[in-house]
Write a structure and sequence with these properties.
The complex is a heterodimer of chains A (171) and B (527). By secondary structure, chain A is mainly alpha-helical. In chain A, 65% of the residues lie in helices and 0% in strands. Chain A is elongated, with a radius of gyration of 20 Å. In chain B, the strands form 6 sheets. Chain B has a 6-stranded antiparallel beta sheet with strand order 7-16-17-18-15-21, with helices on one face. In chain B, strands 9-3-2-13-23 form a 5-stranded parallel beta sheet, with helices on one face. The chains are: A mainly alpha (171), B alpha/beta (527).
Chain lengths: 171, 527
Amino acid sequence: MQRPPLLLAGLAASGAALAKGLFLGYPKKAYASGFLTAKEQAIVAACADTLFPAGGPIPISGTQAGLVEYFDRYVARLPEQQGVLIRLLLWFVEHGPWVFGPRPVRFTSLPERERLRVLEGMRTSPIYFRRIAFLSMRTMLTMGYLAHPTVARAMRVRAHNDPFAERGAAS
Amino acid sequence: MTTRMSVLRTDRAPEHFSGAGPHAVVHVFAEYDRDQTIDCDVVVVGSGPGGAVVAKELAEAGRDVVLLEEGPPFGAKQFDLEAGAAMQNVLREGGTRATRGNMFIPTMQANALGGGSLINSAICARAPDWIWEKWNRETGVELDAATMAPHFERVEKFLFVEPTPREVQGPRNMKFKEGCDALGISSEPTWRNVKGCRGSGECFTGCRNGAKKSTDISYVPAAIRAGARVYTSMRAEHVVTRSGRVVELTGHVVEPMTGRESHGFRIRPNTVVLAAGCMQTPVILQKSAALTSCEWVGKRLLMHPGLAVMAVYPDPIDPWEGATQGYHSLHYLREGMKLEVLWSPPAVLAARLPGLGRAYQEHLRTYDRMAPFDVIVAADHSHGTVSAKRGGWDPDLRFHFHDDDVRLIQRGLGILSDICWASGATSILPGIHGIPEVLGSKLESEVLRTMKLKGSDTITAANHAFGSTRMAQSREKGVVRDDGRAHDLENLYIADTGIFASSPAVHPRLTVMALADRIAQKIATLG
């Protein structure tokens, strides 16, 4: 039986749209010599700037704090099995909106407001695994964010191996 | 033998290291250029609290000791303050290790010369008298407080164990004391194995001041001084048995950080002491098919689950300053709870902070007004397993956090919130799913007592682990006898927290060191 040409064209168009929605349209690698793929780096960047936006109470954003490079290095240094799990976590965030909303597109294709909704949905989800996934992601990114000197200054973190002697000397 | 031991056994850790420092003659990865075969009298696997004590004591007793450590040595200059790098450098599985079961419970286990003593808070507490009675009732082990006292004293003296001085407490610790005092809850400075602590709060990432007497700068150098040979980056994998004895220990050299295997090694000892930790020792035994007739190997992993809340004060208290865990309360110890001050790199503790985006940044910005307090529970109803995985040397860890123990930790949360308010907190960040993220009054915080708390609602961690190769008077109830010797292999001993019959009620390290001291004495007297 011969398939109607219109149906074939429709299927091809849907397939192309799905492929684009799933795999295409990512920017080039933000961190050129990186371990993660360009797509994975784009997911990290989107998460980083959603979690740590520019112009907030702490003056630099996640990507300005170098979180893509930090995350890349972090995953590269993990044992292989753990590294795979972290990369799966990135893809879980990226394609979560198809299942959990707000609409069936990739996380990186959403505007900031909707990205915030996605992460908020993970953070407060009744599904334990989603909450853990969010917590893991946020902890890794927070480690990198707090490692940046501008952030540390904004938080007034004082890493000193002899804090009380310094205080005594100052007074 | 007794005379020789009394001459050689030293009571104080060496404070000054000749030449290039405490690790100068430790063998490291770069030296291994071929397969190795090593003969010795005693091989000790693991340089953490248990193994290092055995190595030093037996070396000082004149035995030819080889100490193996899978991880590399770290010097003070190599300690990295950045949380991610610190965890990847020193912790197994890059700091991502967690138990599975009815929830994920992160557990930080070290892989370095000095083992867990390198990165813990240096807390030293003796298992109380009633714990020995409990262990005797449950497993028949003939240990009591009087028997153990000289071993505790010996370790405490060697490691300069003393209460945390007031000068290095800092406001974070003193807020806890203030709250306990106001409520009539007894509290005290933690006893710790430090000398010259400056209150840097950096225990978790390694003490840059060298004040914490971790075993890599205390017991291991003493063992070397007495003639022990120390090999790092060597992973013990199999014990080879014949006619009820271990005849050989085999393994591989592993590259630091990557874990890549290179050369093989064989050790031919008269006696083997496994002190690889309660999560690695069972794996060695299981992969070796040693002690397979004993059903207890890896079958009763026990832990101290802990849960923290963040107290927020109206004024800065600079929580990053002061002893890492300088104050605690043993008031509820008989009920299975210990309350304490907590500290680790801010990014790790930030898991409890609420919000996203700007709201999260705002909480980070006020971090200097926060103090984390935590409750750890004995968790007598919860247990798990340690199993060897196929194709790797990391264990498969299962742990079921029992509802009764969740209720106990919830009771502790209620008391912690009282301590927060009594110490002047203006809000509490509980970090628990399903309740308000910021509790602004004592009334609001009553939800911590009234809610139906599930383990999976919490961010629970458990770094104290034990019981996976427990001791018992009979082989039907445990893996080893109370002198550490395996019931079924006459020259195999275990000297890590795996031998605990149940929770020690307090931090397990001092207790395992005292037990290791006793095990070493037993081995030494065998001649």
